[in-house]
C-alpha cells in the first residue's frame, strides 16, 4: 500500500523538491514570529506531507546510493527549517521506513527566526508506505498482508521501532510538541502508534494520508453484522411475547445510550487528521458513516460528534495510482474539503481505546 517516490524506473529528477514539490508555499521568515504559517491548516498539511515524502526518498537514496549533495530527501525538510535526527531502520532488511525530524533553530536564525513559530512541532516522526522495489518489497508487503489479514500492525518490528522512537522524544519534549504522520501503510503505523499512546493518556498530533481501510477482518465483521441483523429481525418477528419483553429492552437501551455519550466524550480527547481521496479504494471507507464516499464543503466548528478531522479531495485525481498518491496532498491544483460528518470506521478505531477500561 502506497508506493510513492518509487516511480516506474523514473529518473531521480522527478522527485527533486524544486520540480515536484509545493509551488506556492512561502519560505519561513521573521514574519512567522508575528503570524505563524504553521497555524494555517493548508501549510501544515503541505509541510507534513513533504516530511513523509522525505521518508520515501531516504530509502530510495539508500537504494540508489545517493548521498551528500546528490541525496534528494534533505531537500524535502530543509525548506521548512527542520533537520534529520535519525532514520528509522527495519532490522529485518536494513531498509529505512521513517525519519525523525527536529526543528532546526540554527538554520532558522539565518532567516532571522529567533524562536520556533507558534504551532510548529518541535519533532515530527514521518513514516513511509510501500515501495515496490526489490530491496524493500518483501518486508513492505509482509506488513501490508499483516494489516489485511489482522487489521493490526502491532506484531511488526516497525511498529515497535516507531513507538519507542516517539516515546523517547515525548519524554524529552512533551507530547504537545510532537507530531506523527504517515502515508498508506505508514499511516496505518502512525494510527496504531497514536492509539497505543492514547491508551496511556498521551495524545500526540497525528496526520494520516490515505490510511488503509480495507481488510479481511473488516469484510468478515460486515458479514457478521448483516447476519446478526437478519437473525434479530427473525427472532423479533417470530416471538409471541415480544411486547412483554419490550420494556426491559427500552431500559437497557437508555443505559446503553448514556454509556455511548460518555464514550463519545472519551473518544473526542484524541482527534487525528485524515486525508482521503474518494477515488482511492484503499482508504475510501473512512469517508462516510455508511462507507460511501460523499462530502460536503461546509465546515462546522465544534460539531457535537467530531472525533476526527476528515479531509476529502473532491475534485482531484480519479485513477487509483494518483488517488492513492502522496503528491496530491502538497498540490495546489485540487479542491480540498472538510467533511462535516464523522467517519464510522475511525470512531470504531478510537472506541477500542476505551471500551475495555474498567
UniProtKB/TrEMBL annotation:
Residues 160-213 form the Fungal lipase-type domain. It comes from the Eukaryota. InterPro entries: AB_hydrolase_fold, Fungal_lipase-type. GO terms for biological process: lipid metabolic process. Pfam families: Lipase_3. Gene3D superfamilies: alpha/beta hydrolase (3.40.50.1820). This is Fungal lipase-type domain-containing protein.
